[in-house]
Amino acid sequence: FTASCQSDSCYHGECVETINSHRCKCSEGFYGEQCEHVVECKMEEVTVPANASISCSHPNGNFSFDSTCQYSCEEGYRLSSSGPVRCTASESWSEQPPTCELVLCSELYEPGNGSMACSHPLGSFSYLSTCTFTCEEGYERLAYSSATLQCGASGQWNDSQPQCIAVSCPTLQQPQDGAISCGEDFTFGSSCNFSCSEGYLLKGAITVTCTSAAEWSEEIPHCEGKDNHFCIFKIDLILTIVYIEKSF
């Protein structure tokens, strides 16, 4: 018995000895007496979708067994499937070419006591969409929030959605010898009523209201003792009487 298998007997496979001869057992994806042929896949089936690019590698020949094609999308788009397509031993691609889908961000809404104006150059609440927020009179955005948001390539807005909150007026204190009655806070539209203890008179407005400018509508009143007014009146009266007597 003489071995007939040589180093070049089979190009892509295993040489198997037989009586006075040999045969080739081809590796996956190869065929022929010496496994000299490689399985090929249809090149035209590897299409390039819109907003995409493709990069292929061919270890065994163009668009043949074990060729792989990896897809990537332009900024603002994402692949419908992430893996590459591969030419299989059955002369078909491992899967259909993916598509590039427009990146979407979460839908935004008008804030309470505010409004929203949006621009959608590619699609509703998608990549490059921008939304600008404004607040009604007497309301303002939180200091750390942005007035304009943009949808990024990652599918996230560049900031959290702003909220409109009522402006606040300076905190008021209970006047000396008096009392103050207010709503729950000192925000836009809230009012405070003032009163004085017995024996005191209120100097100024009874009610002040927080305006859209974050200021109180009136000067803050204070309480004065009634005796002070009586004494002033009495002194003025005495001086008047003395003046009249001296005139005669």
TrEMBL record:
Pfam families: EGF, Sushi. It is found in: Cell membrane. The keyword Protein biosynthesis does not apply. Residues 1-36 form the EGF-like domain. Its main location: membrane. Disulfide bonds join C5-C15, C26-C35, C73-C100, C196-C223. InterPro entries: EGF (IPR000742), Selectin_superfamily (IPR002396), SEZ6_CSMD_C4BPB_Regulators (IPR051277), Sushi/SCR/CCP_sf (IPR035976), Sushi_SCR_CCP_dom (IPR000436). GO terms for cellular component: plasma membrane. One of its GO terms (molecular function) is carbohydrate binding. Belongs to the selectin/LECAM family. This is Selectin E. It comes from Oncorhynchus mykiss.
